[in-house]
Amino acid sequence: MNSIIIHGNAMVINNKGVLIIGPTGSGKSELCLKLLDRGHQLIADDAVEIKHSSTQTTLHCLPEIYKKIQIYELGLINLEKQYQAKQFRKSHTLDYAIRLNPEKKTHDNNNLLTPNWQIYSINNELTVSCLEISDCQQRDLSLLLPLL
In the chain, what is the straight-line distance between the N-terminal and C-terminal CA atoms, in Å? Predict the structure, then answer.
């Protein structure tokens, strides 16, 4: 099984493994905190290990950041006291990815009613279905992502 580590976050949302990617400062960690508040599960923040074979791709947390989240300008925060143990997972199968794009402000009228799923290549090693969310910092994605 091959393994890569990428910059991003990983959550379990309604029993689906979701990789959350986007540029630094796009709101990935704050989105994960909001999703935790809504009862979803955190796998990893800031660095996600992805293990893959020809039949399976899984998201994993590095041991040193398990149950921790890194918030810009606040540092690395241990979440064990704020959340129940069942809200943390060490791994889960990868089902899809969400790419946060705070710079993209325009909306393509053709995609207002239909999600624009694309194939996203991770380090040229594997591909995953990915939905790009534009204008992400102006939307409450913790309400929207569980609807997927």
Answer: 29
- Residue 60: the pLDDT is 99
Task: Report yes or no: 62 and 46 within 8 Å, Cβ to Cβ.
Answer: no
* CB-based contact 47:125 (threshold 8 Å): no
Average pLDDT of span 44-70: 96
The residue-averaged pLDDT of 113-139 equals 83
| Residue 136 pLDDT class (50, 70, 90 cuts) | low
Distance CA 61, CA 26 (A): 21
> What residue segments make up the domains of the chain, in order of their start?
2-143
Kindly provide the residue ranges of all beta strands, DSSP E only, lying in the chain, ordered along the sequence.
2-7, 9-13, 16-21, 41-44, 47-52, 57-61, 68-71, 75-78, 91-93, 96-101, 117-122, 126-134
Radius of gyration (Cα) for the chain, nearest Å?
A: 15
CATH class, 2-143 region: alpha beta
Q: If phi over 0 gives left and psi between -120 and 50 gives alpha, with beta otherwise, what is residue 66?
A: beta
